[in-house]
Amino acid sequence: EPEVTQTPSHQVTQMGQEVILRCVPISNHLYFYWYRQILGQKVEFLVSFYNNEISEKSEIFDDQFSVERPDGSNFTLKIRSTKLEDSAMYFCARDSSDTLNTEAFFGQGTRLTVV
Amino acid sequence: AQSVTQPDIHITVSEGASLELRCNYSYGATPYLFWYVQSPGQGLQLLLKYFSGDTLVQGIKGFEAEFKRSQSSFNLRKPSVHWSDAAEYFCAVGNQAGTALIFGKGTTLSVSS
Prior knowledge:
The complex is a heterodimer of chains A (115) and B (113). With 115 residues, chain A is mostly beta strands. Chain A contains no helices and eleven strands. Chain B has strands at 3-5, 10-14, 19-21, 24-26, 32-38, 44-50, 56-58, 64-68, 73-78, 87-94, 102-103, 107-112. Chain B is globular. Chain B starts with a strand and ends with a strand.
């Protein structure tokens, strides 16, 4: 299965600034996901996205977060006003091309550091 | 509550020795189970998955896992560990497409020579 590509690989931002994390999955997939992993902790689900709409979101995914797929190819996660506790590795994932299960294929991640 | 428990935070195995990483889950619906591996600075790579059928599933890199419904477990095994297997291993449970994968806290595997 082709991999998901995430950009940037590392981003440093000041507290209160907006950040946009980008993901380029293959266009014929149905579901896309964002997960995050705070250093030393487990991977946590943020949101799933289907047919240009949010399918499911976790409690973490509050009003500071938004997702969109602006051009049918890129899939973005925006954090409007970053907080120190947003520092984490953010993973984009897509579904499998041949099943409709929650099998997810992850990108390499974007390490976000909020200072 | 839905959860995944990986009881072992860190395991050290000698190269060539066998490996078993434990995973227990609590899930309200039919569980789909996964093992992912993460090398330092890398993303999550899917090792294997269980959806239904044969409870012993084979994955990449010589790994296998066995689903035991009565024990709510999905332990990962490898008969002979290689130094390149040193990484962090995550067990996860999910269900239908679009729903969240719930991950365990991970087990760090070190391989000694």
